[in-house]
User: Fold Lysine-specific metallo-endopeptidase domain-containing protein from Metapseudomonas boanensis.
Amino acid sequence: MPTPTASGPPQSAVTQRRFSRSPCACGGSCPTCSAEQNPLGARAARDGDVAPVADEAAPAAEPAAAPAFRDCTEGITGITDANERLETARQRAREFVGAARRALGAAPAAGTTYATALGRHFIAPTDANRATIEDTYRQILGTLVPRNYICNSQNICGTEQAFWIESDDLVHVCRPFWELSPTCRAIILIHEGAHDVGIGVAGAHPPNRGDAQYPAGNVAPPAGETTAGRMDNPDAYAFFGAHIWRDTDTGRTCF
Assistant:
């Protein structure tokens, strides 16, 4: 949720606002995605850090080198492979966004994963709503570029996984981010990218996935939730994209 920056780089006279997923509401013992294993669905094998074994008849291409993200050094991140992990998360987030955009181009058919995901994350969007959601994803895709990220140390981050700041227009990646599963790291990047394009930045932070207004898992949205509200909720874009790409919802909240 928006909180004033604690310490770190020089600040302007205007207090900087951070936009991140709201602090956990259950006393600091909330689940993280680090335990997310064996998710259901046809794409379950794609949820781990290690790629599936390639067909022996088709030699694998040499992987591209990861970009050198700003300040993502071992001294700041506490790990030796931060650039590789962040690049994997960035690419997966782009895949989530691409899958969401492709799905949104058609009307949902009853009983499909797409129809379930729309209802769970965006309630009951009209054709016009779906077009607007797809355009927001197009804008989010534009934020998922290497220059948009900077790694921070804990004296700046506190307990946050990542946050976006208006004043520098960067997504600040924190040490708790590295403890998340690959799925959750991608979800966090989409969430912060949504803030970057203006989603959920006016007033109080929208409910996170796992809150009473936006329950996790195979649970219908509670009464009172609206399409308009979810269209201004960064988690809706993050979890819908993951739901479509994975062919199943995640039961984790990614805290």
